[in-house]
Design a protein that fits this description.
The chain is an alpha/beta fold. It contains 6 helices and 12 strands. Strands 5-9-10-3-11 form a 5-stranded parallel sheet, sandwiched between helices. β9, α6 and β10 form a beta-alpha-beta unit. It is globular.
Length: 272
């Protein structure tokens, strides 16, 4: 049976660039914000860790050379994780998605398309659990079923609240995510870059299904309204209290809601 880590305790990188800059970063269980000027290596640190994890296979043998992770519990051999990047760049391989019945133009569109599939799976899993709970016949079955469906409802409420100014609301009778705006039905790919970005982040967190998870984010605030930047960390933790956030940022707004003590400067974890 695969044993998954609850979170990463420490990231150590032997050399960030060609034998230079040894990195050793002790991590908080919940929130870790990496700061520093352009070019100092924030994204490189995240990329080195994520690149290793993307290779698949048993931890830690699949990590790239020179990257070491300490996890909790120490004997865990797998890590659940996701990566959110900031830029809504054009899709490089348009031919691969042109056969789909959707107008997918950017990388965020493609990410949202994939998340729609995960969202459907998530709903099926939750639905099955609710059915099993109700069929179990326990006196508090209805209350347990209500709790199981609560994260999805909270996600929908949060998105509706964030999109209030533009009058968009999630159509709650649909299995896929669609929006209603002045009587029209909109797909996620018709949203603005900032709306796509916050939707992708919060949908990624929702379909984690409250499992212990590491969420890497590389400058996730780039397209976001400043009020959304301020709420970002709190909203993520509300949707999944078991997540560990590791993010890079240039924005003071991201840490305004009490997260200043969770900021680490690259220079503070670097031994030249």
């Amino acid at each position: 049976m695969q044993k998954y880590a609850d979170y990463i305790e420490e990231i150590e990188i032997d050399s960030l660039w060609s034998g230079k800059k040894h990195i050793k970063w002790q991590l908080d269980r919940k929130v870790n914000v990496l700061s520093g000027i352009n070019g100092v290596g924030k994204s490189t640190i995240l990329n080195k860790v994520v690149k290793g994890l993307m290779q698949g296979g048993e931890f830690p043998s699949h990590l790239i050379k020179g990257v070491h992770l300490k996890v909790s519990p120490a004997d865990a051999r797998w890590i659940r994780y996701d990566i959110i990047r900031s830029f809504d760049r054009p899709l490089l391989n348009l031919e691969a998605v042109s056969k789909l019945d959707f107008n997918l133009v950017t990388e965020l569109d493609w990410q949202l398309f994939q998340l729609q599939r995960k969202y459907l799976d998530y709903q099926v899993n939750i639905g099955n659990r609710i059915i099993n709970t109700l069929q179990g016949g326990s006196p508090d079955a209805a209350e347990k079923a209500h709790r199981l469906s609560a994260p999805k409802r909270r996600f929908q409420d949060i998105i509706d609240d964030l999109f209030t100014e533009t009058g968009k609301t999630i159509i709650r009778t649909e299995n896929e995510i669609r929006f209603s705006q002045i009587g029209e039905s909109l797909m996620p790919y018709q949203l603005s870059s900032g709306e796509k970005q916050i939707l992708a982040i919060l949908l990624t967190v929702l379909v984690e299904d409250s499992l212990p998870y590491v969420l890497f984010m590389d400058e996730p605030e780039v397209s976001l309204h400043i009020d959304w930047q301020k709420r970002l960390i709190d909203l993520i933790l509300e949707l999944n209290p078991n997540v560990q956030i590791i993010l890079t940022t240039h924005s003071p707004a991201v840490i305004m809601n009490g997260w200043l003590d969770h900021v680490t400067e690259v220079s503070d974890i670097t031994d030249n």
